[in-house]
Design brief:
Layout (H helix, E strand, L loop, with lengths): L1 H40 L3 E8 L2 E9 L15 E2 L4 H14 L9 H4 L8 H6 L2 H6 L9 H4 L5 H7 L17 H15 L3 H13 L21 E4 L2 E4 L9 H4 L2 E2 L1 H12 L3 E2 L2 E2 L3 H8 L3 E2 L9 H4 L4 E3 L4 E5 L2 E10 L2 E8 L4 E7 L6 H15 L6 H9 L26 E5 L3 E8 L2 E6 L3 E9 L2 E6 L6 E8 L5 E6 L2 E7 L1
Antiparallel strand pairs: 1-2, 1-14, 3-6, 4-5, 7-8, 9-10, 10-11, 11-12, 12-13, 13-14, 15-16, 15-22, 16-17, 17-18, 18-19, 19-20, 20-21, 21-22
Amino acid sequence: MKFKYLLIKILVLTLFTVSAQTNSKKVTELDAYIQKGIELWKPPGLAVTVVKDGEIIFKKGYGVTTIGTNKTVDENTLFVCASTTKAFVAAGLAMLVDDGKLNWDDKVINHLPEFQLKDPYLTREITIRDLLTHRTGLGNTDYLWSMMTISSDSALYKMRDVEATYSLRSSYIYQNLMYLAAGKVLEKVSGQTWGDFLKARIFQPLGMNNTYSLLEQVTLIENKADAHYEIDGEITKIEQMSADNIGPAGSMWSSINDIGKWIQFLLNKGVKNGNQLISSSNFDELFKPQQIIPSNEFYPTQQITKPHWMTYGLGWFQHDYRGKMVQFHTGSLSGMVALAGLIPEENIGVYVMGNLDHLELRHAIMYTVFDLFIDGKITKDWTQELYTLYHPDVETPKDPEPIKKAKPSIEEASLLGKFHNEHYGNVIISKKENQFVFNINNTLFGTMSHWHYDTYKGIFDKKENGTAMLTFRLGADGNLSHLEVFGERFNVIDQ
């Protein structure tokens, strides 16, 4: 009998050793592949972790936190999680369902009476599940937090003036403000800020001691990545954009050392150290397909992956890949990216963080990890294929040329003043040192010069924001009536 047990022990040890050696080989191959991808995509910094069969088998930082410095990225370097924050908020709500404090299909207004929309039907019928699945019928309203300095409460208040794009639950459009509303529900029900709740119920139990809910909490931390943008062919550091006013939709910061513990937790189906932090039923609910995503609302990667279906769960995108169900979510905030990807069936997960805008190397790394642990080898050069997909060999369209000698019909002095849009806020036109300047909600600034007729070309002071055309319009009385910018009308309110 002792011999039998000894034989079993030796067999298990042998299998473990073989598995470890296999994973070690794959990790070496992955590391080389990532470095090759960095050469092509040229991010200043990158951090990657991989979890397989419950173990963190890979975590590594690459490059620097800030271009032109020697501040290297390591396992503890902070990056913004951006929209991968949404999965944490959904998990927090799952815990409150477990606590018996709410249900997925509760009406939002029952927990958050101040949640008011233009359509009384939507106000009355939208559920917590609707908030988390981007099917409320409300189109993109990111201008409410990105184009103006506004509190989270004010942003939600302004939603009552927004027209629905389509009927409730009839389709899908990504909606950050509804995740803000979900975070407000979490706060109202728990009696804590959403960040404090996640810290107490997720971060601390998982040992994520270097994870923060807001940018304002990390401003004094030195070991964090800076945002970068490619401007005029050069990668340039830019000012870090804050998402704190829509926090639950995308303001978290974490390190690869911490986030690996989150991936472990997810692959372990909500269990940590034998403790079921989220019940099996509600954990499964997070990853069930909840809403079909039309192809025009999905990622360009579908041109290569060719999925048969695309859906959204509770904080997770989903699609089929080589007969497996992929759960993933990207995060993007000006100059920074993130991506979490899981194939629970294969017990494999990956998380990528980078400090360069539109760094789709993140997708290449995710699918390469999946290939490595499904087939045991890299079967496709995702790095090159995705680079080609996102950098098509076509000439960059040039700005249209102005119509020569097309003089303005409005006296320049008449252009000065304030213009207002009930949704988009204010635009102020003034002059500084004989140069026209514009101010959009004390958030976006730039100069403008005559283009043709009554259109002026605006150049933002932050080059990553590009340019904008500002067109001034006369009313029937022959006086200046309004300004058109971003395709929206701003009426004269102070001249």
